[in-house]
Specification:
This is DUF4129 domain-containing protein. With 40 residues, this protein is mostly helical. 92% of the residues lie in helices and 0% in strands. The protein has one domain.
Length: 40
């Protein structure tokens, strides 16, 4: 698993995938924070 992860880090395609994944996480986090503020 670690080797596959390092391999994906080496190639730009893997990096793009990581960036997209990070973006999705940030968007989900923002939505959670907005919902949390709305509940307050």
């Amino acid at each position: 698993d670690v080797l596959v992860f390092l391999r994906t880090l080496r190639y730009p395609r893997g990096q793009d995938r990581l960036v997209e994944y990070r973006r999705e996480l940030v968007q989900e986090f923002d939505q959670l924070m907005e919902a949390w503020k709305g509940n307050l």
